[in-house]
Specification:
single chain, alpha/beta, Barwin-like endoglucanases, six-stranded mixed beta barrel, 4 helices, 6 strands, elongated
Length: 169
Amino acid sequence: MYKFFSTLVIISLTAWIYFQQQTINDLSEQLTHQQEKLLQAKVSLDKAKDAHSLLRWSIRANVEKITSSQPKRTVTVTAYTPRPEETDDSPNETASQNLVRRGIIAVSRDLFDNGWVFGRKVFIRNMGIYTIDDLMPRSKQNQVDILMFDLDKAVEFGKKRMEVYLLDA
């Protein structure tokens, strides 16, 4: 009887070890897959950073040419954060259905109706280049809103009248 139970325990332990090894193998495959996805995301991010740096350098090198040849508007510029109090019920998603990210702005609908549409770039004098990716409430006119992730910085930025240039598509 003792030999039977010993054999049963050994078989049970062997089966348990086998299933644990299968679990480890499955987790290892998932980890490898996630590492590959992370590497792909890093490569994409590096490419986007390189493109952004090149664009910023080009703008800085040609700021006078850009500002003299692009349509300029003096608009009210404010800042906002992706908080429900300042957005809508989907604070991490823009009106163009993208996730919020650094470097985007929301525009008032009157500007949007005049060609300041999603994906277009704008140059805000003394601030840099931004991508239009969100809309402001209908009550706002002749205004752009810069996305910031830091509430204190957004409040500190306040409300300013600034020159904004809609860059060529």
